[in-house]
Amino acid sequence: MIRIEATIMPRLALAIAGAMALGMPAAAQTITDGDTLRMNGVTYRLHGIDAPEAKQDCPDGWPAGRMATTRLQELISGRTVICQEKDRDRYGRTVAVCRAGAEDIGAIMVRDGMAWAFTRYSQDYVQQEERAKAERLGVHGHRCAPAWEWRAGQRR
Questions:
Q1: What is the pTM for the complete model shown?
Q2: Which of 31, 100, 138, 145 has the fewest CB atoms lying closer than 10 Å?
Q3: Domain ranges in the chain?
Q4: C-alpha pair distances (Å), 9 with each of 5, 18, 41, 120, 127
């Protein structure tokens, strides 16, 4: 049996919390949509991408939002996810580059046509988007409005 002194417990709790804040591994708990996940009480918005909104369909009826959400779930399911904070957005979410294993989740989402490179904030995934467009993958094969345009249309 391992005994932990009472004076060590607060320091141990602080060390664990600090490790988590520095991007230590965690199992993803909730997927909000194709670019947002929640782990250990923190909401992470994937850096550099914009995925279709959960209820967004393309003009041909393809359920872009549901497909993107499902793809993100597949990418993290049963895997250790590490998110490294880059910024905070206007909603208070942590904007982060998240990886499942060694794979950049945002890069995969854009490469698979499940999100757009959000060039307003980053140029990181432009090549992945060019490839997805050339291959007419996901949103690019269904003439979907980019998520930022779709959101603007919903506010009218």
A1: 0.81
A2: 145
A3: 19-147
A4: 7, 14, 21, 45, 48
